[in-house]
Each structure stands twice: as C-alpha cells, then as structure tokens.
Amino acid sequence: MPAAPSKTFYLETFGCQMNVHDSEKVIGTLISQGYRQVSTVEDAGLILYNTCSIRDKAEQKVFHRLADYKKLQAQGKKFAVLGCVAQQEGEKIFERAPHVSMVCGSASYRNLPQMLVQIEAGKRATGLDDRETDECFETEFTSRSNPHRGYITIIEGCDKFCAYCVVPFTRGKERSRTSGSVLAEARQMADLGYSEIQLLGQNVNSYKDPAGKCSFAELLAAVAEVPGIKRVRFTTSHPRDFGPDIVQAIESVPTLCDHVHLPVQSGSTRVLDAMQRLYTREQYLERISWMKAAKREISITTDIIVGFPGETESEFQETLSLLDEVQYDGIFGFKFSPRPNTPALKLEDAIPDAEKARRLTALQEKQRDIQMRKNASNLGRVFEVMVEGKNEARAQWIGRTSQNKVMNFKAPNGAVPEVGVYVSVVTTATFPNSLAGEMVI
Ligand code: SAH
Ligand code: SF4
Ligand code: F3S
Predict the structure, then answer these.
(1) How far is the CA of 335 from the centre of ligand 3 (A)?
(2) How many domains does the chain have?
(3) Is 53 in the pocket of ligand 3 (CB under 6 A)?
(4) 244 and 267, same structural domain?
(5) Which residue range forms the structural domain that includes residue 405?
(6) Span 259-266, average pLDDT
C-alpha cells in the first residue's frame, strides 16, 4: 500500500455562507503552511470537515462522513473537525470518533498553524474558545473559489440568543472588523477583478465599526462605491437592527443590490416572543413597508421555522397570512429542530414531526403560488444579469439578477457570454423559482 501523501488536504464544507467563506480562509491558511488541496479523500493526507450544527440533520452529516472513512485511518490519514459541531461538541468528538486528531471551532482558526504542527507530530489538537474572544479570523491569503463573486466577513458571532438557535454558542460573541480593513479587502478584490461582493455576518446589520468611523449603512455604501465593484449584497439582516438608513442606502447607491433577506421565523407575535426574536409581527411589517415604499423595487426573502414548541394551528395560520401580506420573492422554510444548549430544548408541547411536515408543506405550497404570480409580473422586462455558468444540455446560460433571481437564457446566434460578465436579458418565460429569457445585444 502506498504511504499516505503528507501535506495534502481535502476539505468538505457544510452549512451557511459564513462557513463556506471560513473554509476559503482555512484553505488559504493551510496553503500558507505548505499544504496542497486535493479533490478526493483518497488523495489526501489530512481530511477536514467544516461542520454545521443548525439542525440535527446537519450535525449528523459529519458523524456519517467520519464513520464512512474511519477505515482510511489505517493508511495514516488524519481527520479534523472544524466549525460549529466542533465548537459545540468539543473533546466529546474524540470519544465518539477516536480517529479524529483535531477539533477546532471557528473562533480559534487563527491558531490553526500551531495546531497543524501538533497533529503532524502525532498529537491531538483542540481549539475551543469560550465566548470571550474579541478577535476576528483574518488571513493574509484567502483562497476564494469564484474569481468574480466573493464574500467578505464583516462581523462574526451573534449576541441575540434566539431561543432555538445554536449560533451564539458555536460562534461566540459579536465582534466586528474595522471599516478600514473591510474596505481594504474590497479594494484588493476589485483589483483582482472581482465585481460582486457579499458582506457576511450572522447579524450583518448589527455591525459596529470598532474604529467608530461608519454605520452599517455607510459601510454598505462605501463598499458599493469601490471602483470596479458592480454589485454588493449582504446577509443576514436581523429585523431588530434593520433601520430605514439601509433602505435609503439601497435607494441611492445603484451598485447595492435590490434584495434584502430578512428572516421573520414566524408571523405570530406570541411565537416570536417565545422565540426571543425581539420584535412583533407589526414591527416586522413596518420594516417591510419601508422597503415597499422605496424608489427601487426591492426583492425580499425570509426564513421561517414551523412547529416551534407550542405553536398552535391558529398561530401557524398567522405565518401563512404573513406570506400573503408580504408577498415574498422567496422563503426558506424549516421544521423546528431541538438543539443542545438552547432554551427551546426545555420547552414542553413539542409538535409531532408529521404535523411539522404538514405545516412545512402548506407553507411551501402557499409560497409557490405567490412566487409564480410575482415572477410572472416580470415577463417582458429586461434585467442586467451576471453570467454564472452554462447549462450545456439545454444550451442555456445561467445568470443572476440584482434581485438575486436565477435567469436561464439563450444567447443570439454565435454570442458566447463569458462567466463573470454582465449582460441584458429580456424575460420570455417565468417559473416559481426562476426566470427564462433571451440575451439582448
Ligand atoms: N442569523 C440569521 C440566521 C441564522 S440560521 C437570523 O438571525 O435570522 C439560518 C436559519 O436557520 C434561521 O433563520 C432559522 O430559520 C433556521 N434555524 C435556526 N435554528 C433552527 C432550529 N433549531 N430549527 C429549525 N430551524 C432553525
Ligand atoms: Fe441564531 Fe437568532 Fe443569532 Fe440568527 S439572530 S444567528 S437565529 S441566535
Ligand atoms: Fe450552521 Fe454554524 Fe452557519 S451552525 S448555519 S455553519 S453558523
């Protein structure tokens, strides 16, 4: 049997955009330590999983992977568990999967170089922070996977403690980067040819510049005004911290995309209170009304949890009526999943899984009708799209509008739009989850 090649790694990422971007930074760090990324577990000396713990299913994935590849330990391969499950489970992971050498939460990635040395020496390494760190994970080299569109983390952690959510426990307290360092990264990306930037944070709009120079809305505008940047997005906004100045920034800066993801979770003020979301249905709708009154048409998407403990049928109906009222452009619906450490774990009145599933289906069916109608209103309209790829089988290009809608389009005879360029497309057909069109020359 050939010896396992050392200094090669394979990394698989689960979870949200924050994790995807953390992985790009982890890859940059590993490369700076002399490692080379490979695309299969078989070719790798070090196998890393950047994990998610938001729902039980997500957490189970990493343990399935570890069980599947346990036998590879015999070839000298090492395993590392990073991210939210690592921080949540800590050293218990070594008990459950003894072939793991490294467990590291996201607030400890700055220690990765030393930890790599430790595991190379055959020891175990742990990087588990209490919630008290005030450092952000900045690296000299971030290995971004897409050359046109890239993420910048502006705030890490979360101080909100919604009753159902693990994030405050897995990612530590809120800490923002200085506006100067965010802008420097945006300029560097523009110099490298990036035209779209997505600013990231679990609570992106709780951003507070440690240098005291700008508010979140001002930072948005400043990034959007970096020469060469054509699109700026941001995710995820918390309704409590969502002010009218964000809407004004979108109105006045054309490069800020006309899309806001504003998770509501429930349409019932009673459930929102039990979830500790810090706003009522009415306060949430007030924020929606600011966006609807804007001079630009802002597309709005949300996250919803069905079957939170004690959610009655009539409270669920309030969520359905909220969909009617807001007319979202898209929703992500989830069945409530009880999570370790969270206050909701101890709540009584659990909703049976079959009932959660029924509510989720009802939610998605209603939303499908809304999206069908909303998207149909785009027929005949021309959108600027950024080309993201090609569907060879259907001879169609795939692009995205500023409103974050997927546009599948045909190019007129012989035209070959390149990935990363911006083209105009007229909408010729609409579907619940996408638009279709033809490129206009
Ligand atoms: N920071 C963002 C979202 C973080 S997690 C916010 O505050 O809205 C992404 C989504 O996962 C949440 O919006 C929520 O809808 C869902 N989610 C979080 N914890 C969950 C749980 N325990 N069960 C089901 N869905 C959950
Ligand atoms: Fe979780 Fe709430 Fe923080 Fe969002 S705001 S990450 S849902 S605790
Ligand atoms: Fe999952 Fe952690 Fe993101 S729990 S959703 S990877 S912050």
Answers:
(1) 16
(2) 4
(3) yes
(4) no
(5) 382-439
(6) 98
